[in-house]
Amino acid sequence: MAEADLDAVIRQIARAQNKSLMAAVKKRRDQIMARAAKAKDKDAKDQLKHLAKSAMLHGAAAAKRLQNSAENTADSYARAIKYAAAEWKPAPAKKPAKKPAGKDA
Q1: CA distance linking residue 14 with residue 63, whole number of Å
Q2: pTM, whole model, 2 decimals?
């Protein structure tokens, strides 16, 4: 991974974070739905189902924002590196210094 471009690493980390965030959101939704299944009255059951749906929507939106931010960061980095490589000019080669022509010892 030492040879990988940093933009690819950014994208890979973002995918891993997105996956773990969505897993946490789904786990929370399932917990709320389990409470809804145990609810005694219809109003409580409906309220918990609505809460579970809302939690899923907000979690998916947060994951999408995280993904968009990582994509923008990776694109920005790749673009900056490309421009830096295009602007780079090698330094002029130095000529070796001439030794004075003198007596040899």
Answers
A1: 10
A2: 0.70
- Report d(CA 59, CA 29) in Å as an integer: 10
CA distances 29 to 8, 43, 60, 81, Å, are 31, 18, 11, 42
Q: Which two tokens stand for residue 3?
A: 């040879």
- Rounded to whole angstroms, how far apart are CA atoms 56 and 31? 12
By C-alpha distance, which of 72, 60, 74, 64 is closest to 12?
74
CA pair distance 47, 89, nearest whole angstrom: 65
Q: Helices marked H in the chain — which ranges?
A: 6-38, 42-87
Task: Encode pLDDT of 8-27 as tens digits.
Answer: 899 999 999 999 999 999 99
